[in-house]
Amino acid sequence: MTNKYIYFVANWKMFGDLRTLNSLDKVIKFSKNNKKNKFKIIYCPPNTLIRSLSKRFKKTKLEVGAQNCHYSYEYGAYTGQVNSSMLKNVGAKYIILGHSENRLLGETNRLINLKIKSAIKTGLKIIFCIGETLKEKKTNKTNQILKSQIEKGLKLIKKKSQIIIAYEPVWSIGTGIIPKEKELIKTILFIKSRFKKNYPKILYGGSVNGDNVDKLKKIPNIDGFLIGGASQNSKKFIDIIKKTIN
Ligand code: PEP
C-alpha cells in the first residue's frame, strides 16, 4: 500500500434492495470507530439505491458511486439509460467504468473513452477498470491488452486527476483465483509505467476476500481494492478492511 488513503470500493453489481441497506449500519459504525486510520469506503450499488445510500451516508465518511452510465453528457432519447450528471444529481461521487462484465456485453474501448470524458465533465471520480481475459493471459498478451485499454480508454484525456485505475484480471473476478504475487507486482508496475508522472491511484480487484487480503495488501503500488462478491456482506467487507489497515 502506498498512497495516503487506502480505498475499499464495493461493487454491488446487480444486488440489493431497500431492505439490504440496514446491513450497512455495521459498516458505518465500524468507520466511525476507526477515525485514526486513513481509508475511504465507497459503495457502488445499483442505480436504484444511490439516492438512499447517499442519504444514509450523510454525516459519515462513506461515499457513493455508480456502476456505469450512458456516454451522452446531455439528456437524450436513450431508453433505459442514465447519464453521469443524473447519477451525480442523486448523490454519486464516483463511477465504475470499463468493468469487464460490461465489456463482455460489447462495451468497446472507444465507448468507454466517451463515458469517461462525460463523467470527467460531470465532476465524478472514475474507477476505470482494465484487465486481461484468461485466453489473453495464456497467450502472453496481458501487457499489450492493458496498454491498449489504457491508451484507448484515456485517449485525449489530459486531466487525469479524476482517474483511479482498477486492475481486474477477468479470470480472477468471481472465481476465487488471484494472480501470483510476482505476476501481480510486475503487472501493477507495468500499469504504472504507462503514466509519465502524476500516477493515478491503482486498485486491485478480483476475488479479494478475508483469506487472501493479507497477501494482497503487501503488493507494492496498490492503493486499495475493488471488491465484488465479498462486499455484499458487511461482516466480510469489514473483515477485509480490518485486515488491510491493521
Ligand atoms: C468485481 O466485480 O469488480 C469484482 C472484483 O468481483 P469479485 O470481488 O466478486 O471477484
N-C termini distance: 12 Å
As laid out across the biggest beta sheet, the strand order is 1-2-3-4-5-6-7-8
Highest-level CATH class: Alpha Beta
Shape: globular
Strand content of the residues, in percent? 15-25%
Mean pLDDT: 96
The total count of helices amounts to 10
> From the alpha-carbon coordinates, what is the Rg to the nearest angstrom?
17 Å
Q: Runs with pLDDT <50, length 5+?
A: none
The total count of strands amounts to: 8
User: What share of residues is helical?
Assistant: 25-40%
Assembly state (oligomeric): single chain
CATH topology: TIM Barrel
Can you list the ligands bound to this structure?
phosphoenolpyruvate
CATH second-level architecture: Alpha-Beta Barrel
Total number of domains: 1
The named CATH superfamily: Aldolase class I
The computed structural class is alpha/beta
Characterize the largest beta sheet: strand count, sense, and whether it forms a barrel.
Answer: 8 strands, parallel, barrel
List the helices and strands in order.
EHEHEHEHHEHHEHEHEH
